Amino acid sequence: MAIEAPERIQTLICELQLDLLQRFLEARSRMHPEMLSSVSDETAADTIYAIDRICETAILEWFEANWPEEYPVELVMEGLESHGCVTFPKSCPVTETVLKCIIDPVDGTRGIMFDKRSAWILTAVAPQKGPDTRLADIEVAAMTELPTTRAWRADQVSARRGQGLSAQAYDLRSEMRASPVKLHPSKATEVRHAFGTVSRFFPAGSEALSAFEESLWKALYGTSSSPSPLIFNDQYISSGGQFYEILAGHDRFVADLRPLAFRKLGIESNLCCHPYDIATALILEEAGCVVEHPLGGVLDSPLDTTTPVAWVAFANPELAAAMRPVFRKLVREHFQS
């Protein structure tokens, strides 16, 4: 089963994200930063901040006003727990929906609410298969930048399975005028003298993840006698942001192994990647990058807001082939033995 009119769905979710971007910019212009960073709620997946609530409300309003009735959809999004099952049109039973749309309204909340680094709106759509709908079923995806106050532009990247990607930059100084952007992932077959990261954003598990990363680079490239670091590390607290850095050719490798590390360490509850954080992996794939489970195979979690997801991304297949044997061996040694 495939999505009917995928190009139309791609256009719709890009329009949704542009509307959210504009609402975000308007809200930020009239709110003090401390208001944006106030805690609104705690869910099973994450802490909800005021900035998240602004975008969640805007999403529900947009769907009610703009989503076409001919494509009944179930909406999956953190923060909707109190709403029950959310569908559009509102009167449509979930059993009659044909699409499932998963959204992260603000991926990178902690960076943008302190005006440190861009966050990203992430949206992906799959054919509706009920509880059996998986990440691997996603056929359309889009991500739009929520920039810091110092930035003059916001980028948007979207893709349909098998059709490559589309990228535009929106000029925030001139009524959102769009211009095309060319994104070129790295073609390098190694990570030496470049950016490669194992995610460890927070204290929990960071010692084990650091030990893994150190052993990875040592096994791949040995110990350098130079006082200059051999590999550069960038802890961008946003999977969408990490994806963009690979798409733009800035980063060559990113691995998020937190679920594996937490399980090994017996940490039952801590913030890690969930399906809504990783749902736009299709965009990397359409750019020729590789995104997969750390031990091999496609990312195949259910489309929900709570399942922990471990993943690894390589800028190109040749780099993936060069790193995989050592990478997987060390994943097993550090987190499965």
Tell me what the structure shows.
By secondary structure, the chain is an alpha+beta fold. The chain is built from ten helices and 15 strands. The protein has helices at residues 6-30, 33-36, 50-66, 109-112, 206-221, 239-247, 258-265, 275-278, 281-286, 317-335, and strands at 39-42, 47-49, 73-77, 86-88, 99-107, 119-127, 140-146, 153-160, 165-171, 177-180, 194-198, 231-232, 251-256, 290-292, 311-314. The strands form three sheets. Strands 4-3-5-6-7-8-9-10 form an eight-stranded mixed sheet, with helices on both faces. Strands 12-11-13-15-14 form a five-stranded mixed sheet. The N and C termini lie far apart (40 Å). The mean pLDDT is 91.
Task: Name some characteristics of this structure.
single chain; 337 residues; alpha+beta; eight-stranded mixed beta sheet; 15 strands; 33% helix; globular
* H/I helix tally: 10
Rounded mean pLDDT is 91
Radius of gyration equals 20 Å
* Structural class label: alpha+beta
Helix percentage range: 25-40%
Coarse shape: globular
Low-confidence stretches: none
**Strand order within the widest sheet?**
4-3-5-6-7-8-9-10
Return the string of H and E elements. HHEEHEEEHEEEEEEHEHEHHHEEH
Main sheet overview:
8 strands, mixed
- Can you count the beta strands? 15
- N-end to C-end Cα span: 40 Å
Q: In percent, how much strand structure appears in the residues?
A: 15-25%
Topology:
Blueprint: H1 6-30, H2 33-36, E1 39-42, E2 47-49, H3 50-66, E3 73-77, E4 86-88, E5 99-107, H4 109-112, E6 119-127, E7 140-146, E8 153-160, E9 165-171, E10 177-180, E11 194-198, H5 206-221, E12 231-232, H6 239-247, E13 251-256, H7 258-265, H8 275-278, H9 281-286, E14 290-292, E15 311-314, H10 317-335
Parallel strand pairs: 3-5, 11-12, 11-13
Antiparallel strand pairs: 1-2, 3-4, 5-6, 6-7, 7-8, 8-9, 9-10, 13-15, 14-15
